[in-house]
Amino acid sequence: MLSTVHHHRALLLHRRPRLILPPKTLRLLTPKCLFTSQALTHHPPPPTDATAAATSSSPPTSQILSIRHALLSRQLTAVEITESYLTRLRAAEPRVRSFLHVTEEENVFRAAEEVDRKIERNEEVGLLAGVLVGVKDNICTADMPSTAGSRVLEGYKPPFDATAVRKVRELGGILVGKTNLDEFGMGSTTEGSAFQVTANPWDESCVPGGSSGGSAAAVSARQCVVSLGSDTGGSVRQPASFCGVVGLKPTYGRVSRYGLVAYASSLDVIGCFGTSVADAGVLLHAISGHDTFDATSSKREVPDFTSLFTSSNNLKPRPLQGLRVGIIRETLEDGVDAAVISSIRAAASHLEDLGCSVTEVSLPSFSLGLPAYYVLASSESSSNLSRYDGVRYGQQVAADELTSLYGGSRARGFGAEVKRRILMGTYALSAGYYDAYYKRAQQVRTLVKKSFKAALDENDILISPAAPSAAYKIGEKKNDPLAMYAGDIMTVSIHLSVNVNLAGLPALVLPCGFAEGGRAGLPIGLQMIGPAFDEVWNKFSA
Amino acid sequence: MASLLYRVLQIRPFRICLSPLITKKTGVFYVTSKCLQTRSLAQEKPQSQAKVSTRNHDKGLDKIFQNYEAVIGIETHVQLSTLTKAFCGCAYNYGSQPNTNICPVCMGLPGALPVLNSKVIEFAVKLGLALNCKLSLNSKFDRKQYFYPDLPKGYQISQFDIPIATNGYIDLDLPVELGGGHRRFGITRVHMEEDAGKLLHSEGGTYSQVDLNRAGVPLLEIVSEPDMRNGIEAAEYGAELQRLVRYLGVSNGNMQEGSLRCDVNISVRPIGQSEFGTKVEIKNLNSFSSISRAIDYEIARQAELHSQGLGDQIVQETRLWEEGAQKTVTMRKKEGLSDYRYFPEPDLQEVILTEEYVASIHDSLPELPEMKRKRYEQLGLSMQDVIFLANDVNVADFFDATLAMGAEAKLAANWIMGDVAAYMKNEKVSISEIKLTPNELAQLIDSIKSGTISGKIGKEVPSSSLAALSRNHMTSSSLPTGIYHNILTITDPAEIEKIIDKVLAANPKQIEQYRGGKTKLQGFFAGQVMKESKGKANPGLLNKILLEKLNAKS
């Protein structure tokens, strides 16, 4: 039998031959190029359906749209599609270990049968009908455990669906399981899970990144079509980069956080993984919008992202003519691997070929972002994690009196990284330190926002690497947690991401090249940052 | 919500036993359980505006009192009577079965988020304006963090450095029987926050249970300046706040249900000394009279220690008022300041008020107790009348409505404070429950005044006839005939009985026949009695008493 990775690569090569490409063929990975595949325009319009117009004009490089087309044209049934994904899931799972919980098969098939029945009766089905969706385990699901990767919530089943999950289900999406993560989203390797370590499908000795490592690996290994993750300081974008998939961090407030287990409330967003920009866009569209259960969710209208994609037929030779692209100088300095820098530069020159004007921009406050992020995120997490006291739910340690109950439950329930951040946050919020840390960090945040705003006034989008390197070895940065922590602070590793969270901006990560490693090299991601509520690909609409 | 609840119930029963985790070893728990017991024994009648009672001071203490001065400030928590809780859609009904008004938000489940109930802002602005405060057009919520089993999120959503209202005052008039006089007490701040749940301690003290019904119920915390000097002033301050929230309709102000809770800070210093003495906090004050008595006890205790040169034995601590023993006892000593690690609540937007919004609320405010009292005073009423009438917003409304129908103020006040009040007291009803309308009262007063009903009859109308008056189904259109009818009807059972006795005594034969089985004769007797009373006997009473008499074995 082939190894998981082989299997995975074989799949990729079979289904999407153009996904794995050397850096120079970047053009195929840019949004414009997603629609150049000629085969796609040959599909006849779906026989029935309200969204026929949308589907016919959008080329189905999107797996979601392909599935939709196959279902509505009666080429495949949802049960057949489900069967093929479940087969891959089962085959890959022992080596990749993306999932903390896989939905009972009969439940998955029951949902698939329901979709088939509806199609048989010519009833309208949602845009995600028959689409298998993985959900990060810090997003609440009513019929499955939701542990956030922590012992403290081992066995906990929420009584409600997160708003994003509810919307996915309402549109016919089928939840295939709960994906692994660093405990409460605190980490960037998924080694911080209390339950298991997830492997990178491109090289199983490497980490998938984190904290949404399970969601990224599951999509990369085609264990599901798309998945939901969460991004507090790069937790969608960095694993997307490591696993060679598209990762989308929406604007803060675009997607309801109701049901997302809080890590740092003012930074947390639910994000999307897919194998194409279109899939990430369709999923984002499905889960976006104001929610009366989240006071921080935006009332801004949600544009129909999918209608913004243009058929390749309509594209001019220089489709991106006039688009101003700023390449962030601070993200291409010391601490970033040469392969990453060259991939990004190649991407930039390709964008120029497509008609963009590319200039270097400087974000002077960039280096301040990381310490500010750590102060704010750990402060908020120290507060958000107070509820895990063992009294109402989750693991409880028997004790003679209250303080020992609290202490015991929390000592046993939380992992080392979580404890470290709670301690840091508690310290930063303590009387006498508040002004020096928390308040100052908020001031820095304002500066970061301003400097992004200035850069985005001059440019339509900003680009940078999604991570300073490709995926590294499992255990490489875990052996000494303190060193890893210090390493994080010393390198620019999460500088690249956290500044975007501080500013609340949307960002998209696309595979743009490969570094050495694995059998075919390890993927490198390009980050595109747009203005608030202008999720990046809007710029690529005609 | 119901299905959610059901699900949670399946996951983990609500009967959360911390057994044997929370034992009475910890002082706080011991105290809380005491507190609950004492609360259930509290005597205050719901919805009654409690009056501050006087206390006879010990003569010796009075002497000590003369040399010392108390400085008193009060923190009051008012539970708002919004339809739903502060941050979720749950209702709150006092006395519901434990854990029946809860949802993922007020239980603090992972992933649940608070969403502010806009009524909370409206009520806070109302009270802020009524307390003459400066409103913060930009305020925010903060998290106050501490661990306790009744606090499901591990933090309380509150307001820290920017409360919604600051720097106001409250005016009040002390009751005449307590010495009288006008007072103005400063208000430091008013802020919004959420209530915590309740711990229920088992009989044996081996385990405790958590009831989260109250968790997330909106509160306004009102902090006074340290402007009060004795128990009466403090209690009257509390009573005036209660009047205010009831006038505004923002809370039922009921102390026994915990809708209005006062914590008192008190220090005592020798007169002439400029720095404050050591501050002591008193909790578990379930009525205004207990506020007054607890403070006077505490002043006496501290003054006595000072006078014996033992002032250093007064330590910064929280003391509990024990209703049974009528004294304060140590609950916990302060071990340095607790650090609540406040920071801005990231799950909620800032609270931004527009000038127009504040102005519209200002314009919608009802006439407040102080304004009412001033107006009544200008009507020429005595201070005693003024305080009585303005005490209960419903009584004041009744009085005002009677005036609006043209009644003379003094006469209307006399009727309401006299017969109406006596009737309400006897029947244990509130003014909104009696059938007498302000219109009827005004017409009655007018009839007496104009002589349609002679002053004599008017004067003879006993309060019992008012009772009948209010119980009878009279419509305004039947007046004044209705009034005549009722006033001229004999409704006094004793008087009817007298007439019946007279009739029975005059007809011994018929009684014998009746008791022999000729019960139809009842009609005969009734006719005789009615005749004797010149048609004025109340027929219902007549028949009731007559039957009793006839059927009694003589």
Automatic annotation (TrEMBL), chain A:
Residues 49-60 have a biased composition (Low complexity). GO terms for cellular component: chloroplast stroma; glutamyl-tRNA(Gln) amidotransferase complex; mitochondrion. Gene3D superfamilies: Amidase signature (AS) domain (3.90.1300.10). GO terms for molecular function: ATP binding; glutaminyl-tRNA synthase (glutamine-hydrolyzing) activity; hydrolase activity, acting on carbon-nitrogen (but not peptide) bonds, in linear amides. Its main location: mitochondrion. Residues 80-535 form the Amidase domain. Residues 39-60 are annotated as: Disordered. It comes from the Eukaryota. It is found in: Mitochondrion; Plastid, Chloroplast stroma. The keyword Nucleotide-binding applies. It catalyses: L-glutamyl-tRNA(Gln) + L-glutamine + ATP + H2O = L-glutaminyl-tRNA(Gln) + L-glutamate + ADP + phosphate + H(+). Pfam families: Amidase. The keyword tRNA processing does not apply. InterPro entries: Amidase, Amidase_CS, Amidase_dom, AS_sf, GatA. The active site is at 136 (charge relay system), 211 (charge relay system), 235 (acyl-ester intermediate). One of its GO terms (biological process) is glutaminyl-tRNAGln biosynthesis via transamidation. Its EC number is 6.3.5.7. Keywords: ATP-binding, Chloroplast, Ligase, Mitochondrion, Nucleotide-binding, Plastid, Protein biosynthesis. Subunit of the heterotrimeric GatCAB amidotransferase (AdT) complex, composed of A, B and C subunits. Allows the formation of correctly charged Gln-tRNA(Gln) through the transamidation of misacylated Glu-tRNA(Gln) in chloroplasts and mitochondria. The reaction takes place in the presence of glutamine and ATP through an activated gamma-phospho-Glu-tRNA(Gln). Belongs to the amidase family. GatA subfamily. This protein may be expected to contain an N-terminal transit peptide but none has been predicted. This is Glutamyl-tRNA(Gln) amidotransferase subunit A, chloroplastic/mitochondrial. It comes from Carnegiea gigantea. The lineage of its organism: Eukaryota, Viridiplantae, Streptophyta, Embryophyta, Tracheophyta. The gene is GATA.
TrEMBL record, chain B:
Its EC number is 6.3.5.-. One of its GO terms (cellular component) is chloroplast. One of its GO terms (molecular function) is glutaminyl-tRNA synthase (glutamine-hydrolyzing) activity. GO terms for biological process: glutaminyl-tRNAGln biosynthesis via transamidation; mitochondrial translation. InterPro entries: Asn/Gln-tRNA_amidoTrfase_suB/E, Asn/Gln-tRNA_Trfase_suB/E_cat, Asn/Gln_amidotransferase, Asn/Gln_tRNA_amidoTrase-B-like, GatB, GatB_C_1, GatB_Yqey_C_2, Gln-tRNA_amidoTrfase_suB_CS. It is found in: Mitochondrion; Plastid, Chloroplast. It comes from the Eukaryota. Belongs to the GatB/GatE family. GatB subfamily. Allows the formation of correctly charged Asn-tRNA(Asn) or Gln-tRNA(Gln) through the transamidation of misacylated Asp-tRNA(Asn) or Glu-tRNA(Gln) in organisms which lack either or both of asparaginyl-tRNA or glutaminyl-tRNA synthetases. The reaction takes place in the presence of glutamine and ATP through an activated phospho-Asp-tRNA(Asn) or phospho-Glu-tRNA(Gln). Allows the formation of correctly charged Gln-tRNA(Gln) through the transamidation of misacylated Glu-tRNA(Gln) in chloroplasts and mitochondria. The reaction takes place in the presence of glutamine and ATP through an activated gamma-phospho-Glu-tRNA(Gln). Heterotrimer of A, B and C subunits. This is Glutamyl-tRNA(Gln) amidotransferase subunit B, chloroplastic/mitochondrial.
